[in-house]
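Side project, low priority. Logging it here so it doesn't get lost.
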Amino acid sequence: MPRREEVRASRPSFFRRGRVRNEQGSTLVEVVIAVAIMGSAIIALVTGTGTLFNVSAVNRQAASAGIVARDYAEALSAAVSQTSAWCATAPSGNPYSVSYTPPTGYTATAAYGACPTNNAATIQIQTVTITATAPNGMAETVKTIVRAP
């Protein structure tokens, strides 16, 4: 029968009682510091993600306002080509009947430049500044030129 000391020596180290000399665990202070560092990193990531979503929404509305302004310019171009009211003054200040409805929350307004002198020597163009405003207040401006039909 083997001796007791030999049996003890053949057991794996995790069955031994007591600590082995170079085996050390984490202290409570080390664990608390590690949790604080990880918590700070997670808070920074969550805050950054929230900011990213907000900026993305603002940029999306600004891009949509630019699309609204260009769509209004296309509708204006179509209205000018179909009307006989070239540079006529209307009570609303809008000489052309533009049939365009912007999406919900967006507005599109046009500011018409001066009408040119109606003679053969003058180019018959008019500058129109179109401003589209998004629901968040961002505005996009497009300047376009319309020609006499």
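Brief comment: The helical segments are 4-10, 28-82.
Revisit when time allows.
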